[in-house]
């Protein structure tokens, strides 16, 4: 940890001058050749794109062709999908699919994907997709053969060659950060409890990021009742990690808060036995994303001061576990009746959000959390829900997500549902009466702890985890939201 990335560079050489193990050339759906494909196919003695049931040029499809007598060991066709739907994200996905397919087999690759839509944005998208595709979690399989890919060449027009270097560097920094989050989410839970994740923060983050850890005793002193209540059932106590990045001349100050439940059984309100339990080692995906963002900030030279709060606990069943109907007190003094111990993420985030808004200089707060199954049922596994109390902050995040190729969908904070959080014995219930609009109820609960500060909540419970490889994302942890947050901070610092 973190995973090794291949070197990436650009060339203006012709396709026939590239001496590589594999040449990746794109094809649109319907077997329409994209730049580089015609020349490569002609060199192989083919008049047209080979087509069968397994390859039609759909996005991410790959087809290997032998290349005897050519400078390339093989030609790999990669599908771009429909020509009229071409976008940087389509190119990012195609690059990722091709590299994920070839990385175990080849040391050197070249591709003409940038020539499909020449531009610096395309250079970055293709490089990002390729680097994200060259990932595999191998920490628990030290004897497994490593991925072979060492070097990737992007063929670009001469007009882009001089300025492409910065785009490649941005792509590398964003991919490295996302891979940190992927590693953390995928790490087995016996190897990553709350204290272990705090140690990862110390080990992975550069010196320019300040790291402070509050252990259980300090949490008691600081009145962090949400974290203490959720962590009571585990033999591994909770903790809170505070991160701080201070550039020399910041133009703004923001806070990031991450849900860090290192394993979630649901507590006494036990989750129903199902395959979803396997993914609960990734219930710290929000905190993992926040940690990963801080890993990239110094090298990106982001001119925004950023403070982070990783709210870390393990939600287990034990003799001292919190019970349904317990009443706990959050750091800001709010009392909460715990109606369901499986609605634990909002309790630890409440402490983190309360801390974030105590700093009067913080201009905006964004929390990231695998908060509700309801958001995944509403939006599926490809998109995260975003809730916000500030339209300008919402627009910034939606713009950043579109640039990153990560899908955020705005969901409402219906005011008429706020009464469902009322408790007869405390200030709030943690679940809300009824079983409707679960994602919104989670957002409304969190809103109670941000005062009037501009705030957004990213519920990433759908896209944080995948059951199968897809384009540039691997099976299991995806590292979702890392690149969206980095792009947001880069834009905010301009």
Low-confidence stretches: none
What would you report as the Rg, rounded to the nearest angstrom? 24 Å
Query: What is the quaternary state of this protein?
Result: single chain
Distance from first to last alpha carbon: 31 Å
- CATH level 1 class label of the largest domain: Alpha Beta
Work out the helix count.
14
Tally of extended strands? Answer: 20
Mean pLDDT: 95
Indicate the proportion of strand residues. 15-25%
Q: Helix/strand/pairing class, anyone?
A: alpha/beta
Taken together, the total number of domains comes to 2
Q: CATH homologous superfamily of the largest domain - what is it?
A: Zn peptidases
Based on the coordinates given, report the CATH architecture of the largest domain: 3-Layer(aba) Sandwich
Provide a concise account of the structure shown.
The chain is an alpha/beta fold. Helix content is 32%, strand content 22%.
Q: What are the salient characteristics of this protein?
A:
494 residues; alpha/beta; Leucine Aminopeptidase, subunit E, domain 1; Aminopeptidase; 2 domains; 14 helices; elongated
Describe this structure in words.
- The protein is α/β, with parallel strands linked by helices and 494 residues long.
- 32% of the residues lie in helices and 22% in strands.
- It is built from 14 helices and 20 strands.
- Helix 2 (88-102) runs parallel beside helix 3, helix 5 packs antiparallel against helix 9 and helix 8 (225-231) runs antiparallel to helix 10 (345-358).
